[in-house]
Amino acid sequence: MIDMRLWENYRKVCFIAPFAPPDWSDYAIVTAWNPGSQAVGGRRNARRQRALWRLIQRADAMQAMGPVWGSALDEGWQEESLLLLAPRADAVRLAAAFGQNAIYRVEEGELWLEPVLLKGEPCHLGSLAAHWIVRGPA
Description:
Layout: H1 4-11, E1 13-17, E2 26-30, H2 42-58, E3 63-72, E4 78-85, H3 88-97, E5 102-107, E6 110-115, E7 123-127, E8 132-134
Parallel strand pairs: 1-8
Antiparallel strand pairs: 1-3, 2-4, 2-5, 3-4, 5-6, 6-7
């Protein structure tokens, strides 16, 4: 069962990056930060994100681009994320290994919220362009 308040927070997302989204037709947006949506602190999140990068670099079937910041609309909550060109099942497995409740998927420019550890159905969030902000590091 999905915690509806948490799920609604996941739906209210934007992505902040110093680059435009790639023209890949199908990819995931994943993070290793804050497993289970529980804040774990900056140093631990940084270690987790480095471990995620290392796993991706060792995998032949994956390519990553980032960092991208997954953010609440008011930018009060942000998590470093990666764009991951990989089969859907691999992206879900990787997110599960890092304790993530959900991932974002981009399919032909459309953004989807997809449960990983949470149970439920994927949710269409509209065009990725409506959720993407190009901005350099602060």
